[in-house]
Each structure stands twice: as structure tokens, then as C-alpha cells.
Design a protein that fits this description.
- Helices cover 4% and strands 61% of the residues.
- It is mainly β and 813 residues long.
- It folds into three domains: 102 residues, Immunoglobulins (Immunoglobulin-like), CATH 2.60.40; 86 residues, TonB-dependent receptor, plug domain (Ferric Hydroxamate Uptake Protein, Chain A, domain 1); 572 residues, Maltoporin, Chain A, CATH 2.40.170.
- The radius of gyration is 29 Å and the shape is globular.
- The chain starts with a helix and ends with a strand.
Length: 813
């Protein structure tokens, strides 16, 4: 391990040395609020500190007094809570020439350091020094956007996925995945950390993670070098709720509701009744105690959410004239419990140690019917009924040690994370054919272990900062699948057995930041080495052990020009990767549908993405406008490819690398306070998806080649959110969402539309709050999909549950 990491550390060291003497570069917003400015005053001839002298800051526009400090015994001074603007620093002492510096507080760094300021007994000609800092609400519009869920009352009380449906730039797909700018290659973090709860550079569990546990959501479309290179579309960071007040405080809440208020479409013959009026319950409690240097917190959430998870009607048409009509109805009951807690202790002004942990249990019960008809609906040849009994356990623990140097913002942080996730599934099938009825089953057990060690160093500079860091990861996922076939079973029992996924990743990064009054530049580099092994049961009837290695650089750069105080033009560039996750290469067939079977591919390789983004932001007294144009080029595009088994109507959906693809688009976000009672926010995202010609070989269950020509389609989405203050101090929110038809390899997804509304009223002198909302009020959000294969065409419409009405109450104490 030490030998493999050596080239990474050497490269980072060389980069740090080069950047330290290079042209200054700019930074990404590091937080919100005001800025801390520090420095130290010394005698020029001797270098001795000059204690207890007066240092003043005056506003440059009118020379008015802004702040004053005395240097300490070491000659150091610190100004806190500085707002954006231009200042003049004055230092005076009898026997020394007055010292004057121009100081610019900008938008990028929370901490700035003027370094050593030398006072000379002889008055010298002094050059100006320009200093910058940040205010997050401005910088967020360029590289990240932050949304508080307390303001999102139209979707509150449900899952995180539902809460994000109306956010600018975010699209929720038919299977509950999140997309950013047309791609689902999104990493979801919790408090800035990856864990098995939401997936490592993937998305899992978001449909059931309660939004009540989340304080805000950060969307980062252009991650810097500090973040893992995985997930080319960007990062969504979920910030958990945590109180910061002194003493004992907390809150309790409860939301209840119902979905599937009526049936959208009648079942095909012989299908059990659709589940209607599905209850939704979400109680939560949060407690916090802060005293002295210790803060303790705990939060518990439970989400009980029976739902009609899928109700898809489909028709398969084959070139030989065969037509098959089917329905897949899946009713699901989910119990999702989360317990999150921790302790932060500040030993002194320099050292802090934090412990936090999260426990989660998810219980899923699925029962469903899947009938198949040859031609007319009165000729049923198969009825597939199933019961899935699944339990998932997640444990996540994190320890963070932070050392603060004397200079504000100068920090050294060590973070250790461990995540465990167990997936325990049992499937039971009843396969009814005209001549017999068979009973089949399988059992899957998967344990995921993830260990991370992060070391991060931040050094504020007079005009920006330097960031250095290292990350090491070890990840292991042993999986065991056992099949129990019944009479004349369609299950491929030879595809079972055991498989183990092992991943080792040492990585390092360096970023140098500079900001001037009109120019910003950020330059960063991350280098990662990936060692992946996938050991497969040697008796598997198709696949063998596989894996891959790479050592790759991932550069990032941002250049910005500020023609005026309220305008910014930024150019982003980065290179990222999407590594196949364990479920993408999993060798076991999945029998949710017996005639449309999903399976992984251990020969799958990473896809590499190069992105360019040009953004412009301007603000005025009551609003703002953000516009961006972007292009993303993907090599070895990861996607599922469906092929037909020779001599059989069964389709096999296998992950493949499908060559090169492109997404070119533009995004517009406009916000305007129209009046005291009306605020509007509009987001439009239009993009062209192009998928180049490709040819792949699906090896499971037998080799079949699929070849596709180049395809292209213009797609996008349009969202309008209106916040209205009604009489009686009632807040109302209306969200309108339109998703245009979209393209994927082998097919297209049809247009969708949804209207969400919500009302909120403060009660009990502001300590209580009542919320009423409805998602998909018009019941129009249906998913239509067309899949084209070499010898077949698959057309489906999914009338899954999207319309939900909720009532909630929260009380703070």
C-alpha cells in the first residue's frame, strides 16, 4: 500500500510547490455568512512583534469606521464578521511610519490572512494588497445551490426524493433516481460523507429516507478536487438537522397522509386488487443539549409508507408476429427507522473532537402479480405472483479531530468513517401455467463494509487559500445468492453462488485559490488509484472473476470575471469518473419479472467524463438571474442493454459500456420577489442528448450481439415555484413541474407533468407549525417508456402512486 501511494503523494507535493509560486487562483465558497481577517504586525528591521497597537478598518467608499482591534503580545490581530466590500486597513504607532493597506472582501473564502505586516521606522512606499472573502448566497449560484427544506412545504412529510422533485436542475426518474442535467451519475452524501445508507457514488434508499431529518440540500454540479472523482453529473449533499442553541432544546413532529386515492387504470384479468388509500405516517423527535464546550444531540425518525410501488402495463411486439400483453402490479409496505446522534467536544480554542453515528433499519414487504397474455387479453399463458421479504440494516460511525492553528481558518483535520450495510432478501414466487403451478424461491445475503481515512489541511492566504488532502478507502461486499427452484422452474439455478467485491482506493488532492476584485481562478488536481477485484463462484454458468485497475488524474479549474459588483461570469472545467457499483456487476439474475430479467456484468468498466460549464449570474434589489451553458462528453457510457434470448420471448437487461455519448445544454434560474406576498422562482433546463453508434455483446444467458446507430434528442424540464403569503399569515407554495421526453440507449421516456401545493401556518406563538400539502394534485405524473431491440419493441406506461395528501404538525421546545 505504501509503495502504491508513493507516486500519488509525490505528485501532490510537486503540485503544491508549483501552485505556491504560481499565479494566484480563486476558490469555491466554503460556507455562508461573514469573513474573518487576520494578520501579524512586526518591526521591519528586527522582525520582532509589535504588541498592543491599534489596527483599524475603514470603509473605502466613505472612510467611515468599520472595526478596530489591538494586537496581542505576538503582534497578531483578528477581525471577525466582515461583510463583503472594499476596506482600508490603517496601523499607527509613534516611532513608525503609518501602515496602510487596501483590503477587498469578496465571495470565496471565509478566512483570509494578510500574513506579516512590517512597520518601518523609515516611511516606505508601500504596495497595495488585495484580499478576498465570501458570502455563500452569492457564490452558491455558480458552483452549488443550497435549499432549506423548511421552505419546501409542498413536498414536506415524505421522502428525500419527493422533497427534491421541484428543486432547480434535479429530475426524479421513473425508478426514483435523481438526475442532474440529464444524468443519474450522482453521488449522494450525508453531512459531506459517503456511506452505504445512500450508496457510494450511487443512489440507494432515498425513496424511504424521510425528508423530516434533513435541514437543507446542497446541489454541486461542478465539484472541486477535494471531492471524490466518482459521480460525473455532480453531488447532492444532505445536511442533517442539528440544533446549536445553548442548554436543552429540541422538537417533535408528526405527519400523516394517504396516497393512491383512486385507481388510474383497471387491472388486467386475474390480478389482485390495487392497494388504495395507502397510509403515510412520519413521526420525528430531535433533542439537543449544549453546555460549555460540549454539544450532544440525538434525532429519531420513522417513516411508515405503504405504497403502490409499480403498476406498469406493457406490450411486447416481436418481428415474428408474436405480441405479449402484461401488467406488473407491485404493492409495497415500508417501515424505515433512523436514529442519528453524536457528541462534539472542544478541549480548548485549538482542538475539537467529534463523534457521530447513525443507525437505520428498513423493512420492505412486496407482493405483486404479473400476468402475461398472448395476443388478446383473454388468452393468459402465465401468472407470476411474488412475495419479497427484505430487511436492510445500516450503521455509520464517524470520528473527526480538528486542530486549529493560531491563524483563523488554518486547520488540520483527520476523519475516520466506518459504514456497514446488510441486505437480507427472500423472494417467493408462484408460477402458474396452463398445465401446472410451480413454487420457486431464492435468498440473497449481502454485507457491505466501508472504511475511510481522510486527512485535510487548509491554509488561508492573503488572497485565497491552499487546500491539501489524502483519502484512503477499503470496501468489501461479500454476496451469497441461493436459488430454490420448483417444478419446471424458469429460474437459472446455475447462476447462483457467492461473489465478493473488493475495492482499494488511495487518493490525494491539492487546490490553490485566489480572488481579486475582478478576477477569480481556482486550480485543483485530484489523483486516484483504483484496485478492484471481483471474485465469482467458479461454478457460475456464464461469468468468471474479473476486475480492473487504473491510476488517473482528475483536474478541475474555474475562471471567473466580475465586470460589476452584482455580476459574475464563470468558466468551469473538470474531468470525473463513474465506477461501476457492486450491483452493476452483480452476476445474479433478478426475477422481479420472469420475462424481463435484469443482471449485472463483471466485465463492466468505468466511464470517464469531461465537462465544461459557462455560467453567468446577476442580482438586483429584489431578484437574481443565473444562466449556464454546459457540455459533457462521456467515454464508455454505462447503460443497460436488453436483448432477446434465441428462440424465446424472454428479454435480458444487462449492464454494458455503450461507447461515447454527449449532453449539451443550457440552464436558467430566475428568482424574483414580486411583492411582499409573492415570490417566484423559475428553472428551465434544455439539453440535447446524443448517443453514438455502438455494438455490445450480452453474454448472459448466451452470447447475443446488439448494434445501435447514432441517436439524438432534445429534452429538458421546466419548473415554476410560487411562494404566496395569504391572509392570516398562512404561507402557500405551488410547484409546477414539466419533464420533456428524454432519450436513453435503446429507447425513450415520455413527457410527464405534476402539480404540487402546500399550506403552512405558525401556531402557539411561533413554537408550533401546521402543514397541509398534496403532491401530483392533478394525478398526471405517469411514466411512458419505449424500448427498441433488434427483434422486439417494448412499450409501457407505469401508473405508480404519485398523488399523496399529507397533514403535519411540528412543535419546538
Amino acid at each position: 500500500m505504501r509503495r502504491r501511494c508513493a507516486p500519488i503523494l509525490a505528485l501532490v507535493l510537486l503540485l503544491a510547490i508549483a501552485l505556491a509560486g504560481a499565479t494566484p487562483a480563486s476558490a469555491r465558497a466554503q460556507g455562508s455568512g461573514t469573513v474573518t481577517l487576520s494578520g501579524r504586525v512586526t518591526d521591519a528591521p528586527s522582525g520582532a512583534p509589535i504588541p498592543y497597537l491599534t489596527v483599524e478598518l475603514r470603509r473605502l467608499r466613505d472612510t467611515s469606521f468599520a472595526a478596530g482591534r489591538l494586537t496581542d503580545s505576538a503582534g497578531a490581530f483578528i477581525f471577525t464578521n466582515l461583510a463583503k466590500g472594499e476596506y482600508q486597513l490603517d496601523v499607527r504607532r509613534i516611532g513608525y511610519a503609518p501602515l496602510r493597506r487596501a483590503v477587498f472582501v469578496g465571495e470565496l473564502s471565509r478566512f483570509l490572512d494578510l500574513g506579516v505586516l512590517k512597520m518601518d521606522p523609515v516611511a516606505p512606499a508601500l504596495d497595495k494588497v488585495t484580499v478576498t472573502a465570501s458570502r455563500e448566497e452569492v457564490a452558491n449560484a455558480m458552483d452549488r445551490k443550497s435549499y432549506t427544506l423548511a421552505d419546501n412545504i409542498a413536498q414536506s412529510g415524505g421522502s428525500v426524493v419527493q422533497a427534491m422533485a421541484s428543486l432547480p436542475g434535479v429530475t426524479v426518474t421513473q425508478d426514483g433516481k435523481l438526475q442532474l442535467r440529464g444524468s443519474d451519475k450522482v453521488a449522494v452524501l450525508i453531512d459531506g460523507k459517503q456511506s452505504a445508507l445512500t450508496g457510494v457514488a450511487s443512489q440507494t434508499g432515498l425513496e424511504n429516507l424521510p425528508a423530516s431529518a434533513i435541514a437543507r440540500i446542497e446541489i454541486i454540479t461542478n465539484p472541486g478536487a477535494k471531492f471524490d472523482a466518482n459521480a460525473s453529473a455532480g453531488i447532492i449533499n444532505l445536511v442533517l438537522k442539528q440544533e446549536t442553541q445553548d442548554g436543552f432544546n429540541g422538537s417533535v413532529g408528526f405527519t400523516g397522509g394517504a396516497g393512491s386515492l383512486w385507481s388510474r387504470r383497471d387491472n388486467l384479468p386475474d390480478v389482485r386488487a390495487q392497494r388504495l388509500f395507502t397510509p403515510k405516517l412520519n413521526p420525528s423527535v430531535a433533542l439537543n443539549y449544549r453546555r460549555g464546550g460540549t454539544n450532544s444531540f440525538v434525532r429519531a425518525d420513522w417513516l411508515y409508507s405503504p405504497t403502490m410501488n409499480k403498476n406498469e402495463f406493457a406490450t411486447r411486439t416481436y418481428t415474428d408476429g408474436t405480441t405479449i400483453t402484461q401488467q406488473l402490479l407491485r404493492n409495497r409496505r415500508t417501515d424505515y427507522a433512523t436514529l442519528n446522534g453524536g457528541v462534539d467536544h472542544t478541549f480548548d480554542a485549538r482542538n475539537t473532537l467529534s463523534f457521530s453515528g447513525l443507525l437505520n433499519r428498513e423493512k420492505i414487504l412486496d407482493d405483486g402479480d404479473n400476468p402475461y397474455f398472448a395476443g388478446a387479453q383473454n388468452t393468459r399463458y402465465r401468472l407470476w405472483q411474488f412475495l419479497e421479504d427484505e430487511v436492510k440494516y445500516t450503521a455509520f460511525a464517524s470520528t473527526v479531530y480538528t486542530h486549529r492553528f493560531l491563524q483563523p481558518g488554518h486547520t488540520f483535520t483527520v476523519t475516520g468513517n466506518y459504514s456497514f450495510h446488510r441486505e437480507d432478501e427472500r423472494y417467493f414466487f408462484t408460477n402458474t401455467l396452463p398445465s401446472f403451478t410451480g413454487k420457486d424461491a431464492f435468498k440473497l445475503l449481502s454485507d457491505e463494509h466501508i472504511g475511510d481515512l481522510n486527512v485535510d489541511y487548509v491554509r488561508p492566504l492573503a488572497q485565497g487559500r491552499l487546500e491539501l488532502g489524502f483519502k484512503g478507502r477499503y470496501r468489501s461486499i461479500p454476496v451469497n445468492m441461493q436459488f430454490f427452484p420448483g417444478q419446471q422452474s424458469p429460474i437459472d439455478s446455475g447462476a447462483g453462488g457467492a461473489a465478493t467485491y473488493r475495492e482499494k482506493i488511495p487518493a490525494a488532492y491539492a487546490t490553490y485559490v485566489f480572488e481579486g476584485p475582478t478576477i477569480e481562478l481556482e486550480s485543483g488536481l485530484r489523483v486516484e488509484q483504483v484496485l478492484l477485484d471481483y471474485d465469482v463462484n467458479p461454478n457460475h454458468n456464464t461469468y468468471r472473476s474479473d476486475g480492473y485497475r487504473y491510476f488517473q488524474p482528475f483536474p478541475t479549474m474555474r475562471l471567473a470575471w466580475k465586470p460589476a459588483a452584482n455580476q459574475k461570469l464563470s468558466l468551469f472545467f473538470n474531468r470525473r469518473v463513474d465506477r461501476p457499483n457492486e450491483v452493476d456487476i452483480r452476476i445474479f439474475p433478478k426475477y422481479d419479472e420472469p420475462e424481463l430479467i435484469k443482471v449485472g456484468n463483471p466485465a463492466l468498466r468505468p466511464q470517464f467524463t469531461t465537462s465544461v460549464d459557462l455560467g453567468y449570474r446577476t442580482t438586483w434589489s429584489r431578484g437574481s438571474l443565473y444562466a449556464a451553458g454546459y457540455r459533457r462528453i462521456v467515454d464508455a457510457t454505462i447503460t443497460r442493454i436488453a436483448t432477446q434470448a434465441p428462440g424465446s420471448p424472454i428479454l435480458y437487461n444487462v449492464f454494458q459500456n455503450a461507447g461515447r455519448s454527449w449532453i449539451t445544454g443550457s440552464e436558467l434560474v430566475w428568482q424574483q420577489t414580486v411583492s411582499r406576498s409573492l415570490t417566484l422562482s423559475t428553472n428551465a433546463n434544455i439539453y440535447r442528448t446524443t448517443i453514438g453508434a455502438f455494438s455490445v455483446l450480452n453474454r448472459y444467458p448466451v452470447p447475443v450481439t446488439y448494434t445501435a446507430d447514432k441517436e439524438s434528442l432534445i429534452s429538458g424540464n421546466f419548473k415554476v415555484n410560487a411562494n404566496v403569503l395569504l391572509p392570516g399569515r398562512v404561507d402557500a407554495r405551488v410547484s409546477s413541474i414539466y419533464l420533456a421526453p428524454d432519450l436513453f440507449p435503446q429507447g425513450r421516456i415520455g413527457a410527464r407533468y405534476a402539480l404540487d401545493v402546500g399550506l403552512r401556518k405558525g401556531v402557539q406563538q411561533g413554537r408550533g407549525e401546521v402543514v397541509v400539502n398534496a403532491t401530483d394534485l392533478l394525478n398526471t405524473n405517469q411514466v411512458r417508456r419505449t424500448l427498441n431491440g433488434t427483434d422486439f419493441r417494448y412499450v409501457s406506461t407505469d401508473y405508480l402512486e404519485t398523488q399523496v395528501v399529507r397533514v403535519g404538525y411540528t412543535r419546538k421546545f
